[in-house]
């Protein structure tokens, strides 16, 4: 599905990858672009309509879905992260619960709210922003990895469920992206504009999954190996 002439709703779109999604959708000729965010105060972006939404709050989600009932492409981008000492850290349970509320349950809540809206359209799509962390061991990101792995599994179930109902579901896997979310982490990072272009191109090509950077592509290619990347990551990752 092409975003040209589509109506796009993006969660977590006040900055970073979400804002890049909004800008590129507008550039590609989307009829309307909704930028979902918890606080719309002061947001001004040409061609983009700010909408208040908190993916942990069903009331705000329902209000946003009612306002944006013309949506044809939903992008579940909102996400949070936390650094911890490792999988046995004292705060691993508390941080996991916090991250799951946004990164996993948030995806479910928003998708449920937009389900009937998308099913009523002749062409519709959902993009779920995932991560290469589902395959890459990074102990300091244990809660984030668990939440994104859950979201990946949900995306796979959702795709199969909606396949015969006219809704394309695209899972976006990518490594670290150069946004506020990754400040302070000294690793190679993808340009958010490049990630967004790859993703919209994959959507237009009818794909179900996109690896939006070289590292993620390499990592995914190891999954059938005797020693896959989630056991021993390839050099450079």
UniProtKB/TrEMBL annotation:
Keywords: Oxidoreductase. It comes from the Bacteria. It holds the Pfam family adh_short. Coiled coil: none annotated. GO terms for molecular function: oxidoreductase activity. NCBIfam families: PRK08264.1-5 (NF006119). PANTHER family: NADPH-DEPENDENT 1-ACYLDIHYDROXYACETONE PHOSPHATE REDUCTASE. Belongs to the short-chain dehydrogenases/reductases (SDR) family. This is Short-chain dehydrogenase. The lineage of its organism: Bacteria, Pseudomonadati, Pseudomonadota, Alphaproteobacteria, Hyphomicrobiales.
